Amino acid sequence: MLSQVVSIVDKFIRDAQLNAIWYNKVIEWIPYNKFKNIKEIAKGGFGSVYYAKWIDGYIERWDIKKNNGIETMTIHLKILNSFYSIRIYGITKDPETDKYIMVLEYMPDGNLRDYLKNHFDNINWND
Fold this sequence. Notes:
alpha+beta; single chain; globular; Phosphorylase Kinase, domain 1; two-stranded antiparallel sheet; 2 helices
């Protein structure tokens, strides 16, 4: 069962990388130990929300024609701020709980529900 889940996650990440047209659409596997200062900031019906500092940062460049692997990508700490979308950076796994975690852009103005409520009409779904 566990190997099936790992296989599904691996395939999801691989497919997302192969189909990424822009570098900001790449989803990557992020080792849990690449996060520091992890703090729970909210808890809801679907789970908990944590804030953490990502040591290496996200993928800044992605050459789809060369199909560069993660090892050849430039990693950068700069965070792009997009007012109209919440960026999905990748997936990690908590080694203590064995649970998979989606790594999303931090939204300082509230949770996803509040963001969608306040900005739904301005969201560009094609980005």
